[in-house]
Automatic annotation (TrEMBL):
InterPro entries associated with the record: GHMP_kinase_C_dom (IPR013750), GHMP_kinase_C_sf (IPR036554), GHMP_kinase_N_dom (IPR006204), Glucuronokinase-like (IPR053034), Ribosomal_Su5_D2-typ_SF (IPR020568)
Source species of the chain: Dyadobacter jejuensis
GO molecular function term, any single one: glucuronokinase activity
Residue span(s) of domain GHMP kinase N-terminal: 94-171
Ranges where the GHMP kinase C-terminal domain occurs: 247-312
Highest taxon of the lineage: Bacteria
Keywords: ATP-binding, Kinase, Nucleotide-binding, Transferase
Pfam families: GHMP_kinases_C (PF08544), GHMP_kinases_N (PF00288)
Organism classification: Bacteria, Pseudomonadati, Bacteroidota, Cytophagia, Cytophagales
Keyword Isomerase tagged: no
The protein, known as: Glucuronokinase
């Protein structure tokens, strides 16, 4: 029997990037794009590489572009790290795994390095497949932590919980990463939001504006760890946008998110060095009357539009910046 599992792209609606600093966020899963895992029993444990994991290139420039988008090893290290972390979890919790091996392969349609969390989607799908194969239940609030540790502890990748939480929970989720709660329970407070309460959303991305999120966050992380007052204050204000947005959605005031999303991005610009190319994408969307902010660490924006006429304007305007506009499918 072949086990097939899937996890989806995500977009930060409000509060990011405070999630990496014990803040608050609201995120949505974007089912337009996903990563899938195929896993089946076999005599030996085997990981089947995808074309992007190979070492054959058309030219020096092909290699350069591949490394820029996929890193030096493609997706294979993610799979290895996830399997190891799953094994560690089972051993630490007294779960004896049967003597069964498997063959695993992954696929992904998530645009890489544009802030839609393609790497963590592969890991979430992998954990789901391993849980099914070995009949192991990992509590849902704990699963995002294991996925994150597969990247941070095993591979040294800078990562936060937001992406993994929304990809594990799916739909729309409000997250409060309270430092004391995470220290005592291993997870934050996660509350589902009914997707039908959301306003009309668009997502636009340009793969030419790709960023590696760890590099984007490294300077602010150092300043936060040093206790720089301005950074701590602004990150707190960004986190509060998520709290305000959660209350607005609970009370049927979805229109309030328009200003909150714009304010979220404007605050981000006070402490992050946002490239002009990304700002142009934001400003182009806002010139159509829409709100706009980063969906992640750069390359993808998310915002609210009022009607089909405005959506058509966004299609036309953002195409001038080589950006593709979609309406996110949230379930």
């Amino acid at each position: 029997m072949i086990i097939e599992t899937r996890a989806y792209a995500r977009a930060g609606l409000l509060g990011n990037p405070s999630d990496g600093f014990f803040g608050k966020t609201i995120s949505i899963s974007v089912r337009n794009f996903g990563a899938s895992i195929s896993l089946y029993e076999s005599p030996e444990l085997q990981i089947i590489p995808e074309p992007q994991d190979g070492s054959t290139f058309k030219s020096v420039f092909h290699l350069r572009d591949s490394v820029s988008m996929l890193g030096y090893n493609g997706g294979l290290p993610l799979i290895k790290a996830g399997i190891k972390k799953f094994g560690d979890y089972c051993e630490n919790n007294g779960i004896r795994l049967p003597n069964r091996n498997f063959t695993v392969r992954y696929r992904s349609s998530i645009p890489r390095q544009v802030g839609m969390s393609g790497s963590s989607a592969i890991l979430v799908a992998l954990f789901r497949a391993l849980m099914q194969f070995y009949k192991v239940e990992i509590p849902l609030p704990i699963l995002p932590q294991l996925v994150m540790e597969s990247e941070t502890e095993e591979l040294g990748i800078a990562a936060g919980l937001q992406d993994r939480v929304i990809q594990c929970y799916e739909g729309c989720v409000y997250m409060d990463f309270d430092k004391d709660m995470i220290a005592s329970k291993g997870h934050g407070r996660y509350e589902r939001i009914e997707p039908t309460s959301l306003p009309k959303l668009f997502v636009a991305y340009n793969t030419n504006l790709s960023k590696v999120s760890g590099k984007v966050h490294s300077d602010v992380r150092a300043r936060f760890d040093r206790g720089e007052p301005e950074v701590i204050k602004v990150l707190g204000q960004i986190a509060d946008k998520a709290r305000q947005g959660f209350e607005a959605l609970q009370e049927g005031r979805a229109q309030d998110l328009h200003a909150l999303m714009n304010e979220n991005f404007d605050l981000r610009c006070q402490i992050y060095n946002v490239p002009e190319s990304n700002k142009k994408l934001i400003n182009a969307a806002r010139s159509c009357g829409a709100s706009a902010k980063f969906a992640g660490s750069g390359g993808t924006i998310i915002g609210i539009y009022e009607n089909d006429d405005m959506l058509n304007q966004l299609f036309i305007k953002l195409k001038q910046f080589n950006a593709r506009v979609i309406r996110p499918f949230v379930v």
